[in-house]
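dumping this here before i forget
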Amino acid sequence: MAAAQTARSPSPPPQPPVAQTPGPRAAQFQKLFSDALNHTLRICSYSKFSSCFPTPAKYAPQTLTSIWEQITSKVEASARKEFEDIMIERDVIAGLNELERLVAEARSRKERGVEAGEPPHTLPPERLYLAHLAPYLKQTESEFEGELKRLESENEELVEGIQAQRQEAEQLVGGLEAFIVDLERANEIMGNELDSNDVKEEVADVEQELRAAGREAKL
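structure:
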């Protein structure tokens, strides 16, 4: 039992918290901002500023110099404060430090010839769960797609059968309607013939009555 526990590789210690002290990348980022701000302030020199206000520069240079210093000082302070607020709000230092750690870890893996990737025992539970579940989900998706295609094929065949039955029913109804029309015409013709025979019988009766009346008159 003890041997088994000794052979089993212990889990690595948890990652240390990311330090808020600026690392190399964070320090370089801060220096880049400071250099850019100083360059901007140097461009807005007193000579250029005073050229925009020639009269005060001639008659009140000390006042104009004080105004220029106040403006540049306020711009610098406002820009640096806004930069610091953004750094805190976005947690830039921690992000750059984490990037630094990942780059160093990747470089170390490359030097040792270790393939990219994280050891399974260091992954969070959610990623492990999804990794184990992915093959089953893929298989289920494939089965669903096959079942969907089969149902679509059956539906197409069913629609074709219904259309064929509808056409056959329409043909049958059309034949019945034609047959009914023929029956109605035959009934009309037979009715006309029956009416003609009745007239002939009535004429014959009248002739017989006239003949009988004529014989009685001769007697």
